[in-house]
C-alpha cells in the first residue's frame, strides 16, 4: 500500500476498533486537495460504499480553513440535542503551507478540544524541496506554535500506526494531534 491508500484505511481501522469496544462512532474527513496529499480526496471517493458502511463522511474543503473549521465542528457533536453516535473522529488534511494558512482555526480548535469518544487528527503533507508546492515547508514548527503534538511517519506502516496513536492521544488528552507526512513517504 502507498501512503494515500493507508490514509484511506486509517479511519476504517479506527471505526472497526471502536465497534469492537462497543462504541457507535463516526468519522468526518475534510481537507484541501493540494499537493503533496493530492489524490487523497479521489481515493476516498473511490471507496464511498466502504466509507458509508463504517459511518465515515468525507466532505472536500474549498480551502484549508473551511475544512479545518468543519472538522472542528465535528468535535462538538455532543452539543446537539440529538445525536446517533457516541463520538466523531475528525481528520483534517492539507499541504504544509495550508497548515500555516489554517493556523487560527487549528489553534482555536485545539484549545476548544475534542468531545468524549471523539479525537482530531491534523494530517500535514510536507514538501521540503518544493517539488509540488510553491515554497518548502516543515509543519512541525507550525503545529508546535499551535500547541498540537506531532508525530512524523516514516513509512506507510507508520502512517497507519501513528495515525491510530494520534487519534488515541487526542482522545486521551482532549487536544488535537498532528501527523506529518513528507512527500517521499506518500
Q: Would you kindly provide a written description of the structure presented here, covering whatever features stand out?
A:
There is one protein chain. By secondary structure, this protein is α/β, with parallel strands linked by helices. The chain is built from eight helices and six strands. The protein has a single domain, classed as Thiamin diphosphate (ThDP)-binding fold, Pyr/PP domains (Rossmann fold, 3-Layer(aba) Sandwich). It has helices at residues 3-20, 40-46, 48-53, 64-74, 96-101, 103-112, 139-145, 156-173; strands spanning 25-31, 56-58, 87-95, 120-126, 150-152, 177-182. It has a six-stranded parallel β-sheet with strand order 2-1-3-4-6-5, sandwiched between helices. Helix 4 packs parallel to helix 6 (103-112). The N and C termini lie close together (10 Å).
Question: Main traits of this protein?
Answer:
186 residues, six-stranded parallel sheet, single chain, alpha/beta, Rossmann fold
Amino acid at each position: 500500500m502507498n501512503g494515500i491508500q493507508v490514509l484511506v484505511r486509517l479511519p476504517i481501522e479506527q471505526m472497526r476498533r471502536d465497534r469492537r469496544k462497543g462504541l457507535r462512532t463516526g468519522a468526518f474527513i475534510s481537507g484541501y486537495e493540494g499537493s503533496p496529499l493530492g489524490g487523497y480526496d479521489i481515493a476516498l471517493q473511490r471507496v464511498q460504499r466502504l466509507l458509508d458502511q463504517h459511518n465515515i463522511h468525507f466532505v472536500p474543503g474549498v480551502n484549508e480553513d473551511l475544512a479545518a473549521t468543519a472538522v472542528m465542528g465535528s468535535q462538538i457533536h455532543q452539543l446537539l440535542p440529538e445525536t446517533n453516535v457516541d463520538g466523531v473522529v475528525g481528520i483534517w488534511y492539507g499541504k504544509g503551507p495550508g497548515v500555516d494558512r489554517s493556523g487560527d482555526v487549528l489553534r482555536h480548535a485545539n484549545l476548544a478540544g475534542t468531545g468524549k469518544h471523539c479525537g482530531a487528527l491534523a494530517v500535514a503533507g510536507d514538501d521540503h524541496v518544493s517539488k509540488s508546492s510553491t515554497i518548502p515547508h516543515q509543519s512541525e514548527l507550525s503545529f508546535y506554535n499551535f500547541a498540537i503534538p506531532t508525530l512524523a511517519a516514516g513509512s506507510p506502516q507508520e502512517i497507519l500506526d501513528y495515525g491510530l496513536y494520534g487519534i488515541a492521544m487526542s482522545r486521551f488528552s482532549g487536544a488535537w494531534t498532528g501527523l506529518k507526512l513528507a512527500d517521499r513517504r506518500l
